[in-house]
Amino acid sequence: MNGVTTLTEDQRDALQELMNISMGQAANSLAHLIETKIGISIPKISSVTPPELFGMINRSDNAFYTRQSFLGDIQGEVMSVVSRDGLSEVANLLEYEAPLSQSDIEETILELSNILAGACLAGLSSQLELATNLNMPTLFSPKKASFVELNWQHSLVMEVQFDIELSSFSMRVVFCLDRVSLEKLTATIDELLG
Amino acid sequence: MFEQLVGKLPVGICVVNEQYEVVFLNDFFVDRMDANLRKDYQDKNVTDIFPAQAKFLRRRIKSVFVLQHPSFSYWEQRPHIFPFNSSRPITGEETQMFQNMEIVPLSSSTHGKLACIFLQDVTAQASYYIAQQELSKALKREHEEQLKLIKKLDSAQSQLIQAEKMASTGQLAAGIAHEINNPIGFVSANLDTLRQYGEHLISIGEKLASHSPDADTTTHKLIQQLLEAHHFDLLREDMPPLIAESCEGLTRVRDIVENLKRFALEESSGWQLLNLEDAINQMLELVAIQYKNPVYKAQIEPKGLKLFCEPGGIKQALMNIVINAAQSVTGEGFVKIIAKQDDTATYIKVLDNGSGIDARHIKKIFDPFFTTKPEGLGQGLGLSVAYTAIEKHNGRISVNSKLGKGTVFDISLPLQQPEDSDELVVTSA
Amino acid sequence: MAVPLLVADDSRLSRRSVIKALPPELTFSITEAVNGREAIEHLQSDSFKLLLLDLTMPEVDGVGVLEFISTHAVNIDVIVISADFQPEKQRIVLELGAKKFIRKPLDSEELAMTLFELGYL
Fold this sequence. Notes:
With 194 residues, chain A is an alpha+beta fold. Helix content of chain A is 45%, strand content 25%.
């Protein structure tokens, strides 16, 4: 991507609201499944460079990372940052029995990513009447070097955070879109605003 | 046509309703099920048909019904959800199928909400991946071993340099010892003469003192003043012990130099008959100079025990063992050498009641460069040199030790007959 | 007579869609607040009959506004319009005195129905 991705204030506001609604749906889904209240943040929409994206993802050592791509009318990748703190409590809520094996932990991380990222994307897509499909999440460890090598200068990212009350667990989901998808997204938002 | 197509798909398809009852299975599933289940799976609970991962399956299917969103499972975390074997029942190794699973929400007018399980056989990828992982682990291990080896070689090299230095220092010491002998010779001869002269002078002084009252007053006064001014009384008392001490010191220097010369200078000059008793006594004297803690004892039977050997090697071996023994004695203690001989072999025992050797080190003590001493204080060569020397004589060396109690080294050297013993009898001079 | 209405939502899009969804049979005099703090300021200086309140807002969130209303015994009908519709959240909001909870994205018919139930129509 060349040049700063610019959104008008209205577009940014609209995208933020759409994400907010999607998050609400995601949180409700998860809350329903694990019968616990989920806290949601105000979504952040920003334009970042690859090193900034790395900084955004890699804010703490005490986390696990997953990523999954989505295809369809809009395409991109979702990265989830899952805190280690409180993870075992969440695993218990997902009916994993203590003591957790390494596989249990990994499965919990992948499952949480899939549920929250999936519900967010599904919410966004349905509001904008776009068709998207999310692929399987995989675990990864972000390395600064590989982010610096990315062949774009700026990307629009949407960052949301979920917390599970009564536990120190928190999780951030970062959506990144490719340029074509971003254009498609802003055009769809303009229709909505129009 | 579509039904046939779905039936033949190379992925497993299993559709269940909200009660987890099986609505549809494709051939992939059916072909792999027990014969008695094949005809009778309709409307059965999927977790009854596949009870192995029942809890997990129920949870995931529930999640799909609740969230209306796909759920995934990977072989890495959960390799075998359904009890299927990999696809080669005859030719291949009979292994369990590695599976990736995806469950997606569906709905139909006749069944309402449904969940569709897609099952992928990823055994090939998984075994490839696992093999790769193992390979990479093996490579990593090898790499680490090589690094260790390189480090060992590095240290070996520096140790060898050190050893070389030591060897040349030894030669130097021997050379110096030789040079010191000459001055020591004339210094002690001169000192002896000086002692006699001193005695004469003292007797002159004594006589003067006793006879001066007989002289005239002036002379008497002069003599008394002279004797007092030069502290004759003190001088008379102090001079003989001073000289005696110096003589003793010189004797010690001569002994040390003599021992050093005999022991260090001696290079391997082939097989000779060695007077073991002399060699052991000399060695103990030398070691005692440096390590003063232990009491040294030698018990050699018979007196003047002789051994046909390479004297340099044997002496070096004993020296190294005795030094180790001496170093291990920190407080009061002893180092003892027992040597005896029978018709077949010579036996040498070195005992100490020092700190002993830790059981986990005992197997390594003869390894080159193995040392428990702080860096710089030991090269870890002494016992390995000893071992090599004993081995060269077809002998055996073994060790017994108890931590905190002491150590015993046992050496046995099979008797070797000199080809022409008369010619080669040497003492250690 | 126009109903004095306060719409509190940090999203302009959301405020616009709320205002657009208001039933045309009624007239409102509308004040907008972009966060909870602004909403409380308006509640302190003017009197309103109805508050359409979002929950997820910066500075002071919707729950904070409801707490202000209940502790200061402000006489106002509150309808919460939020994306965060977890049952637990709805329960808290209703306990704090909100009359009704409506999910985002907002359905204008649901809003009209609610206003009818509350006696505005």
